[in-house]
Amino acid sequence: MPFIIIALIGHDYREAFWLTLIAGASDAIDGVIARWFGHKSWLGAYLDPLADKLLITGLFVTLTLQGQLPVWLVALAFARDLAIIVTVAAFRRVKGIALRMRPLFISKVNTFVQVVLIIAVLADLGGIVRLAAERQYFVWLAAATTVISWAAYYLEALRALRDRQPAAA
């Protein structure tokens, strides 16, 4: 990730594009190998999504600071992640419930769309593929999947709370 951010800061969008593709491909290959050989671990289950989140966040923030992504989109993505973290913490603190929020399918779709948005922006800025007109569609799609994912996690938390409540007499 630091090399991608350094490339972005230096406005070397072509290098940032290729490094991002390499990072994504290596992450995918790593996951396939782990599943193929049964080398899944609890540590990997936490570190892999954390690494993905750090990469996406770093790229979102840097591209936003450069005026390439709208501030409201990054704020929306941060608000969603913060809401999930606060919900889990509140369940632990207030309800004494160790709420485990498993990754939902829509969350994986949201991550995929965010990555596609980042790659499209980098490809456009790097002159690899001209997508200036299409970039706004990717922004709106990322926003929509972020909101849908947020709502899905909210409903999941309500379900967990309902399942933990004693039945009314």
Q: Any overview of this molecule?
A:
The protein starts with a helix and ends in a 5-residue tail after the last helix. The protein contains six helices and no strands. It has one domain (2-164): Four Helix Bundle (Hemerythrin (Met), subunit A) (Up-down Bundle), CATH 1.20.120. The protein is globular. With 169 residues, it is mainly α.
SSE topology sketch:
Layout: H1 2-9, H2 13-36, H3 42-65, H4 71-95, H5 105-125, H6 135-164
Helix pairs in contact: 1-2, 1-3, 2-5, 3-5, 4-6, 5-6
- Strand tally: 0
Number of helices: 6
CATH topology: Four Helix Bundle (Hemerythrin (Met), subunit A)
- Residue share in β-strands: under 5%
How many discrete domains? 1
CATH class: Mainly Alpha
CA-atom Rg in angstroms: 18 Å
**Low-confidence parts lasting 5 or more residues at pLDDT below 50?**
none
Mean pLDDT: 86
Helices and strands, in N-to-C order? HHHHHH
Find the structural class using helix and strand composition: mainly alpha
Quaternary state of the chains: single chain
Helix content: over 70%
Query: Quick one: biggest sheet?
Result: none
